[in-house]
Amino acid sequence: MPQFQQAPDFRTYLQNELVRRCRANPRYSLRAFARMLDVEPSFLSKILNRKRAVTEDTLDRFSRKLSLSPVDVQNFKTRLKNVELEPALQFQQITLDHFQMIADWYHYALLELVSTKGFKPEAKWVARRLGITPGEVSDAVDRLVRLGFLEVTPRGRWVNKSGSNTTVGNEFTAAAFRQLQRQVLEKALIALEEVPMERRDQSSMTMAIDASLLPEAKERIRKFRRELSRFLAKSDSLDEVYQLGISLYPLTQVIKE
Predict the structure, then answer these.
(1) In this structure, which topology does domain 1-83 adopt according to CATH?
(2) What's the confidence (pLDDT) of residue 88?
(3) Which residues pair with 158 in a beta bridge?
(4) Residue ranges of the domains in the chain?
(5) 46 within 8 A of 52, measured Cβ to Cβ
(6) Rounded to an integer, what distance in angstroms lies between the CA atom of residue 57 and that of residue 45?
(7) pLDDT value at 166 more than 70
(8) What distances in angstroms separate CA 214 from CA 66, 135, 209, 210, 220, one per listed residue?
(9) Per residue in 212-249, pLDDT tens?
(10) 152: β partners
């Protein structure tokens, strides 16, 4: 589905489009996007970071560069006329934000990175630490702020406000979790090849089990994750962000009577 059909407003569409281009080409940047739109990078940055309003004139200029259809342009213009988004659009924005926060691994990683020693609230610095693009960082920060998971203070300090918030278990978030787990598994394969043994631990165990005990096994895994997280985070010298993935799955096929 095209990005403009998913975005509830033109600013969000621009953010999504920048991230899409950065993923397709790791060397792509906000500066390149601004050059394509024929504006100064600082002008585009202010729009993406909600420091400058999107006017109809700006929308028209950008739409021509992005080859948007007249129907899509008119839809975005209709939304521009509302000082506040309609409740339905607000709900759509929050739903899409929650989906992307769950689906893209770097949202949680960014929140954890805020607590590490020497953290710098700068898109380029965070991008280098997480191995993503500055555009993805800016998009993630804006999304986390909208959701209330991150606060950017007047002095520019980033504060993790996520606390013990969790997600609602429904079909929409389940799809996001599937996308997240695919990313986690892909990064685990990369770590297997590129990260020194002393900085990782990847192992497996094959076992015969009583399948009726799986609910208790899953609960034990959940408790283990929480206990390990508390143990590793109790220091005052947090300096890295790690990903823990535990897989328990059947190697045998279920035989139906």
Answers:
(1) 434 Repressor (Amino-terminal Domain) (1.10.260)
(2) 44
(3) 152
(4) 1-83
(5) yes
(6) 17
(7) no
(8) 51, 42, 9, 8, 10
(9) 999 999 899 889 988 998 899 888 889 998 988 777 66
(10) 158
